[in-house]
Amino acid sequence: MKDPFLETKAIRTQIERTQFLEHSNPLYLTSSYVFEDAEDMRASFADEKQRNIYSRYSNPNTSEFVEKVCEMEGAERGYAFASGMSAVFSTFAALLNSDDHIVSSRSIFGSTQTMFNNILPKWNISTSYFKIDELDKIEELIQPNTKVIYAESPTNPAVDILDLKRLGDIAKKHNLLFIVDNCFATPYLQQPIKFGADLVIHSATKLMDGQGRVLGGVTVGSEDLIQKIYLFSRNTGPALSPFNAWVLSKSLETLPVRVDRHCDNALKVAEFLEAHDNVNFVKYPFLKSHPQYKLAKQQMKLGGSIVAFEVKGGIEAGRKFLNSIKLLSLSANLGDTRSIVTHPASTTHAKILEDVRLETGITAGLIRVSVGLEHPEDIINDLKQALEN
Ligand SMILES: Cc1ncc(COP(=O)(O)O)c(C=O)c1O
Asked: In what pathway does it function (predicted)?
């Protein structure tokens, strides 16, 4: 049979049915698994058999979730984590040694930046940053001890787009790992492995769950890299819980239809904001005015669910706007059915130095809207009354 489409893989990738021949996959709330006899136990621990031993190592629910993400991203193998940040941290901790060096995009999630700046230096692992419009300077940052090029696209929260193929080519030329956080796009809109990524990381907390219920993370890539990440994680314990994996695996079944509607709504919201007199600028990858519009169209199927914009009148006007919101939620999450409005400079990116914030487009008045699945007219009406209040 022809290789199924991504939408079908998201629904039909399944672990074996039990004796009850259930249609919907059951939840395996078990911390460990039993052995037939002493020899079975010995052989399982000696890795002579592939089977579940203990849920910190693997569990049918986490295996199914990971298998689906691998199918959708075009990866060989993966490991599921308790959160997006545990996926980011464990990936770096598993693959890097002390004194290694990372070359990273400046425009990355706040906690990832804090990890690079304040946590990895404990092991003398350092990071040099490049600006999203200075990819031609990356090669100057590469040192003999550089091991990784790291990027997000679209970026959080300024929704800038980085040329993943170009980054992948630079990494390959210098024999470096290329790691991409693909959380904003999801594998439905963009598959970084096609552009040369060795590993793809997701915060599954966002669009993969899509309903704001569970935390989760996942890293996928080649068999040999994931084996190292697996051995690190199996011994250090950042595993995803079976319950959260069960929720996430079910959620992936509807990811393509949800993301389609998120993107339709987000484009409508972006067009509305762009035409509004009280808005300084709007950033949305599929708006013609976006600086990397052409690249976004090449790399992504649709523009994503996040719109960034600035209210006229500076920080005070921004605060007034947020306080006037009635229907949407003021929250730090994104990728939910419920539309969410955030002020990144005072929340998700507050711990980052002001000049670094400005360099990555996070102005004091920048507002990030995670456009949800409410009727688009209701979302727009709420934004309109808050802008005109
Ligand atoms: C791009 C990106 N990466 C990683 C994370 C961290 O994910 P989690 O909150 O699941 O730890 C986030 C969270 O907002 C994010 O936006």
From this structure: Amino-acid biosynthesis; L-methionine biosynthesis via de novo pathway; L-homocysteine from O-succinyl-L-homoserine: step 1/1
